[in-house]
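We emphasize that the prediction below concerns an isolated chain of 432 residues; any contacts that depend on oligomerization or on bound cofactors are therefore not represented. The input was used exactly as deposited, without trimming of termini.
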Amino acid sequence: MNEPPTSPSNTEGHRKRLRARFMAGEESALSDEALLELMLSFAIPRRDVQPIAKALLARFGGIASVLAADSAELKLIQGIKENSVALLKLVAHLKGGCEKASDPVASDPAPTAPQEAQAPIEESHTPENISTVAEQPESVKTPTPPKLQVSNGYSLDSAQNARLLTYISERPTTRRFARRDIMEGIGLSEGQTESLSSIGAAIGLVAPRTTVLTDFGKLVATNDLFLDSLVTLEFCHFLGASNPRNLIWFMVFNDLLVTQKPADQPGWSAWLRDKLAGKYSSGSLVKHVAHEVKFLLGAYTLNSFKKLNLLIETPEKTLALRRYTALQPLTLAAMIYLVGQQHEAQLIPFSDLHAVPGSPGRVFGLDPTSMRQMVEILHQKTLVRFEVRHGLDQIRLLDGFEPLEFLAAAYENRAPQPTARSTKSEADRLLL
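Result of the prediction step, given as a token string:
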């Protein structure tokens, strides 16, 4: 269908207003759509570029994914020609160059201390629509750096995890747990305790730094202490694999397993080291990448997450991501509403649920058809509204529902009950 002709004077006036709002720092001018529209206006003269910006976001998800997209894929969008591709690639190059210039290479950490990466994750790996923020005033929030180490070389042990959750839940008034007290309380070594706390934070059960239970952690401690329920495992997998702070976990499920051919354990490690070369010292990469790959393979083939059956072995003895079609409706609803809370949005583009790195569909290996069927089930249950607006499929969140209530209802085998509309701070509290 051909686009209706646009009056040159109207187009120029709209572009001037776009530039003026951007230069004034207006919030509406900083959305992905507005920024893309502004960029395209410099490459495409005398044409309404808003539909093109919308089409790019519908196909690729967020602005980072657009900038990282292959040139040939960009040209599949009607209206995108050489000038537009060149501009987008120039912006991506400049952005990547600025980040690389400011990224120090991390030094080798002590063997038992989790390594906080000093450099941000590469833009092509960072999702636009999944984010985690620390619990502090908005004016002083800074991006949480990714962690090269989550497991510290230890495995996910459900029995040890149960001991940790029990110890913490029996002390509800404690606001910060000292590592030494936890070690003595659960009878584990310093390394095991540190690893257990780090893994617990990665899957949303305890808060980083304080090790107190999150609201989700309280639910798990009450209903599924040994991580047996699919509700727990699905949501923990989503939190672990969708958060770019869990660097290796995020890269494996959002890039390696999605874009690369099936590989074995050494192949995973080699690919990750190559991707992270220059951002960490070679010693850190050789040692810690191998530890994290071993942890993930153990978690999904031997330990708790094996029940999800997400990793399958090929005849060549390599590992591939299996499409997970058994996702519980209420667990998926919790994920969708969490995304909405984090971005203070009631309308979520359908593509954000399967195409964007960190999205539910991405980390569970779901194609658009499978994800659509699952969302339609939620629509039929009147838990979301699945609608088409401006030619785009979108999910509308309903007032009064929040992620924690969907999870509680799933554990208690009942229908979720609407409450007061949740805020972004409540979403942070669920995770952190």
